[in-house]
Write a structure and sequence with these properties.
With 185 residues, this protein is mainly β. Helices cover 2% and strands 54% of the residues. The chain folds into 3 domains: 61 residues, SH3 type barrels (Roll); 59 residues, OB fold (Dihydrolipoamide Acetyltransferase, E2P) (Beta Barrel); 57 residues, Nucleic acid-binding proteins (OB fold (Dihydrolipoamide Acetyltransferase, E2P), Beta Barrel), CATH 2.40.50. Strand 15 and strand 16 form a beta hairpin. It is flat.
């Protein structure tokens, strides 16, 4: 247990029987009233966000999350299959755990996975990933001058808008937080 004033962004807490990750934190001292802490947190299982107020001295149960590097192998009907490089055991993660992160997974990549005890909670993606363009319409001379974009299909099946000068076979960087094109590799 810790006091609510010790909470920070990115910490995991147990709230109403579920693990929540704090996404925003604010300590408020309104004039001559008692101070409180207002946090926005995301429920790991449901993905729902909620704003909650805690008294400054209120006790909050912290949850310890452990990050383990896993290698992404493939996707099948059961979910996404990963391998633990230490003991070569296979772990299948459901689509609810992987969520939108599936757009950035490439077979053979090493991804951090947060665990609570032995339960996988969520993926820790890098801020950007390099993916190869497998199909797009061809560009023309002078296309690099304008700010127009065209759709491109990447090696993992994800579609993204790229500048007109990007061609098939190019390796591009994609921002995993926004899904936007960052540049060529």
């Amino acid at each position: 247990m810790t006091n609510a004033v010790d909470l920070r962004r990115g910490m995991a807490i147990m709230y109403q029987g579920a693990i929540n990750v704090i996404t925003e934190y604010q300590h408020v001292t309104p004039g001559n009233w008692r101070a409180y802490v207002q946090v926005t947190m995301r429920n790991i299982r449901t993905g729902n966000s909620a704003q909650v107020r805690f008294r400054s001295t209120e006790g909050v149960e912290m949850v310890t999350l452990e990050s383990k590097p896993l290698q992404y192998l493939y996707r099948d009907a059961n979910g996404f299959n990963f391998m633990n490089a230490e003991d070569f055991s296979n772990i299948t993660l459901s689509t609810t755990i992987v969520g939108d992160s599936a757009r950035y997974l490439k077979e053979g990549d090493e991804i951090g996975v947060l665990f609570h005890v032995d339960d996988p909670i969520e993926l820790e993606l890098p801020t950007s990933v390099a993916l190869k363009v497998v199909s797009t319409i061809p560009g023309f001379k002078g296309d690099s001058v304008t700010n127009l974009q065209k759709p491109a299909k990447l090696e993992n099946g994800y579609e993204i808008n790229v500048p007109l000068f990007v061609k098939e076979g190019d390796v591009i960087k994609v921002d995993t937080r926004t899904g936007d094109y960052l540049g060529r590799q």
